[in-house]
Automatic annotation (TrEMBL):
It comes from the Archaea. This is Small CPxCG-related zinc finger protein. It holds the Pfam family DUF7576. InterPro entries: DUF7576. The lineage of its organism: Archaea, Methanobacteriati, Methanobacteriota, Stenosarchaea group, Halobacteria.
Length: 62
């Protein structure tokens, strides 16, 4: 699998691309792609967002 966070998503097939945690859109070659990373129960967790707006919307829902 190609790293979905590499260089704005170049060379990533849509099937392997991350989905926005807020709106569900596939994130491919998006300069507005945001990733939130945290550690939970000893494991690294991530959430991908297609834009700052979706990141803020998800935070508002939490």
């Amino acid at each position: 699998m190609v790293d979905p966070t590499s260089d704005l998503g170049e060379d990533i097939d849509e099937a392997d691309a991350p989905s926005c945690a807020s709106c569900g859109s596939k994130i491919i070659q998006s300069p507005t792609h945001r990733v939130v990373t945290w550690v939970e129960d000893g494991s690294v967790r991530t959430q991908h967002f297609c834009s700052e707006e979706c990141k803020v919307a998800a935070a508002d829902e939490a």
